[in-house]
Amino acid sequence: MDIQSDFDRGAFRDCVLAHGLGAPTHAAYAWARQAFVSGKTYAELAQGAVAQGMVQCDLIFITDVRPGEPCLLDGKGHEDLTIRNLDGLPLLVLAPAQDAPWTHERLRDLDIEAFIGRRAIEAGVSAYIGGDFVGSTEV
To answer: Quick one: 131 and 79 in the same domain?
Structure first.
């Protein structure tokens, strides 16, 4: 059996969050999974991820549009923005103004922390417009 298959993402995330500096990035999960083989504890892995700057504590909206891909906001500018915790529970639902649909700029300018607090963001959140994923603290 591959020892990496015993790696528990949730336990690692909880240890990083306990350090109070933010949520692990995807790079942190990949690094920790590799380091897990060496027998490090989740606390040691968390300390390593924090020391290497592999934590993130801001909600990042996906704004890049690659050639041939549709914009995530196409046809959804007037749908609700929902912020969910990592367990999928809604923390905030915002409707756009009738005369000001969601744009990448409007999303980036939102102060989500003012609505849900720093601790919620540090614990990890994801953003959806009309049910479609548009950002996260873990992208």
So the answer is: yes
Residues 73 and 132 in one domain: yes
Give Cα separations from 110 to 11, 88, 107, 122, 129 (angstroms). Answer: 31, 21, 5, 17, 14
Q: What is the pLDDT of residue 19?
A: 64
Continuous H helices in 19-85: 26-36, 42-51
Q: List C-alpha distances in Å: 102 to 5, 80, 107.
A: 41, 9, 7
What one-character DSSP code corresponds to residue 89? -
pLDDT in tens, 82-105: 999 989 999 999 999 888 999 888
